[in-house]
Amino acid sequence: MGELKGMKELFAGRHFDREIIVLCVRWYLRYKLSLRDLVAMMAERGLDIAHTTIMRWVQRYVPEFEKRWNGYARRSGRSWRVDETYLKVRGRWVYLYRAVDRDGNIVDFRLSPKRDVAAAKAFFRKALRTQLRAPVSITLDGYAASHRAVREIPNEDEAWKRTKLRSSKYLNNLIEQDYRGIKSRTRPMLGFKNFDYAAITITGVELLHRIRKGQFALHRLNLKDRAAPAI
């Protein structure tokens, strides 16, 4: 992951104050605003900011904010509900794989250009790296590729040997409802023009979603040897 930069170093050389940058990035990720909405809102405060500048801030700072917050992340439960939804990038569908635990806490997510066995396995590997332990159970809907991925992945990594596969449309209502918060935010963004930009933006939206759910051990912010989150 690399050493985290200090806050002063992270924002060094920027024309606008750190508070303005963080505010624009947070509002863009949190509320149903387009980049041009934010430009208009900043203009009312006497600030002339181009929408492309805010877009660059999102790209530059979301990965840094995520690194900082992940240092305080709580591990999710071990009963995962997994599903995928779709978004458009340059007029083509891409797929957002997501998992929540039985309490609705976000386990992990991954944006993928494809929806197949390899994509599902890539998501499960990412989730394992995030959680540092495999789930006791994975609940899926009826999509065959994801079922195959769960059946095959124990042959590639023994960490998954004890994971049980369940299929239940009813139990997966939890994650389908959780998608609403993500889609309600991405809809006003008026479509993504670039896959990498979409992936970073979704990372920021998911981060704010996790913060609202209380998935971070904020009592640890008094540790003197760790950089506090900015967003």
Note down, in words, how this protein is organized.
The chain is of the alpha/beta class and 231 residues long. It has two domains: 7-73 and 216-222; 79-186, Ribonuclease H-like superfamily/Ribonuclease H (Nucleotidyltransferase, domain 5). The protein contains eight helices and five strands. Helix 2 (18-30) crosses helix 4 (51-70), helix 3 (35-43) packs across helix 4 (51-70) and helix 7 packs across helix 8. The longest helix is centred in the first third of the chain and has 20 residues, at 51-70. The mean pLDDT is 89.
Summed up, the domain count is 2
Q: Quick check: average pLDDT? A: 89
**Proportion of residues in β-strands:** 15-25%
User: Nearest-angstrom radius of gyration?
Assistant: 19 Å
Question: Taking strands numbered 1, 2, ... along the chain, how are they ordered across the largest sheet?
Answer: 3-2-1-4-5
> What composes the largest sheet?
5 strands, mixed
CATH superfamily of the largest domain: Ribonuclease H-like superfamily/Ribonuclease H
- What's the CATH first level of the largest domain? Alpha Beta
Q: List SSEs in N-to-C order.
A: HHHHEEEHEHEHH
Number of helix segments? Answer: 8
Q: Please state the second-level CATH architecture of the largest domain.
A: 2-Layer Sandwich
Q: Could you say which overall geometry the principal axes of the C-alpha atoms support?
A: globular
At CATH level 3, the topology of the largest domain is Nucleotidyltransferase, domain 5
Which properties best describe this structure?
RNaseH-like_sf, 5 strands, Transposase-like protein, globular, DNA-binding, alpha/beta, transposition, 2 domains, Nucleotidyltransferase, domain 5, Transpos_IS6
